[in-house]
Design brief:
79 residues, mainly alpha
């Protein structure tokens, strides 16, 4: 098991696929939103929902593009 999300993505060789990362992110938001709603934290559930949606639409339903930056944890400093 990984200690942090960063560990999950940096040290798991099975997760080099961007679509898998998007699916994991979507599922994480979905689970968090449901947990908040089920415990009566409606404003938190709305907040989590708004973190995922773009202009009121699921980003995978439209013509949105996910942008991935380089893994900055693997950059070597030049001296």
């Amino acid at each position: 098991m990984f200690d942090t999300t960063l560990d999950l993505f940096c040290h798991n060789e099975n997760l080099n696929d961007k679509q898998h990362m998007i699916d994991t992110m979507r599922q994480t938001y979905w689970d968090a939103m449901n947990e908040c709603a089920n415990t009566g934290r409606n404003w938190d559930a709305i907040s989590v929902f708004e973190e995922w949606v773009v202009d009121g639409q699921d980003p995978e339903d439209g013509e949105r593009e996910f942008t991935f930056i380089a893994d900055l944890t693997r950059l070597d400093e030049e001296n």
